[in-house]
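FAQ

Q: What does a record look like?
A: Structure on top, sequence underneath. For example:
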């Protein structure tokens, strides 16, 4: 297939998306001039440092730790049936559901910020193109462009 973009024929503005361990998501977009040369590369990141507190994971972990410290002696004395009775209480299901919703909210908010910024730009600069996301190996070209050092960083 070669080193070129195999999806270039689709006439779209491509976002390279790369999930990782430190950064939950890194998104890159190459801005090109009319002659095809790269003018700049913008990238957005959703870091674990943003994701964990914003989604409520950090808060829930602290609340669980505090609660367990208060009832540690009672927990060691509980039978298996009593333990299941405790973890079956609605507060634990509610906490899990809050975490689930928080995670979805943070990721949706991140993508909304990225898309809103690019859609405003796209309507002005590329009225005949669509925005498309590329994951995995298709995103490697965007990651290579970031490594090249031509970047404009935007933190959401």
């Amino acid at each position: 297939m070669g080193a070129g973009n195999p999806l270039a024929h689709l006439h779209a503005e491509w976002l390279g998306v790369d999930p990782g361990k430190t950064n939950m998501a890194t998104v890159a977009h190459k801005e090109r001039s009319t002659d095809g040369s790269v003018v700049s590369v913008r990238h957005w990141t959703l870091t674990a440092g943003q994701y964990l507190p914003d989604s409520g994971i950090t808060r829930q972990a602290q609340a669980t730790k505090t609660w367990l410290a208060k009832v540690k002696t009672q927990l060691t004395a509980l039978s298996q049936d009593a333990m299941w009775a405790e973890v079956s209480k609605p507060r634990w299901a509610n906490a899990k559901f809050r975490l689930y919703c928080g995670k979805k909210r943070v990721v949706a908010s991140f993508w909304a910020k990225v898309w809103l910024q690019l859609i405003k730009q796209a309507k002005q600069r590329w009225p005949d193109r669509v925005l498309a996301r590329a994951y995995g190996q298709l995103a490697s070209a965007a990651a290579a462009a970031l490594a090249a050092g031509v970047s404009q960083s935007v933190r959401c």
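Q: Is there anything notable about this one?
A: The helical segments are 48-55, 57-70, 72-77, 80-87, 90-125, 140-147.
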